[in-house]
Amino acid sequence: YRKHEWDKHGTCAATLQILNSQKKYFGKALDLYKQVDLNRCISELPRLPPISITLCVFQMTVLKEALTRAYGVTLKIQCLPPEEGEEAQTIGQIEFCFTKNLELRNCTEPKGMQTGLQLGTGELSVCNDTLPTYYPLQVQ
């Protein structure tokens, strides 16, 4: 997994001196992960009535607005559509975007660096703002 991430993303980021080795790249990724502290931020948001003990359920518009307010930038959120018989979509990926100086920026801007926090697998698409949205409590 680490080799794939370095080959796909790290070698591009290595044009920056601060990220020009595997140790620097993965070390800075961990620093940024701790800095944004996504799980803490989401755990403080208002939830919809639970559908499952292991999942948090949110209204997507509330989630987007709260994350924008918390970080001061627009994140890129993608979802897995509801499975057959289900009514809620599942967050599949949340991306934080950074400038080349590793400062947060809007993901709607065309240039810069992006780092994805993988929370799921499968076919990801733009989240539906009207559907309840699952977010796993335990992210590994």
TrEMBL record:
One term of GO molecular function: RNA binding
Organism the protein comes from: Nothoprocta pentlandii
Gene3D superfamilies, alphabetized: Ribonuclease T2-like
Recorded coiled-coil stretches: none
Domain of life: Eukaryota
Family, similarity comment: Belongs to the RNase T2 family.
The name this protein goes by in its record: RNT2B Ribonuclease
Record-level GO BP terms: RNA catabolic process
GO cellular component, one term: extracellular region
InterPro entries according to UniProt: RNase_T2-like, RNase_T2-like_sf
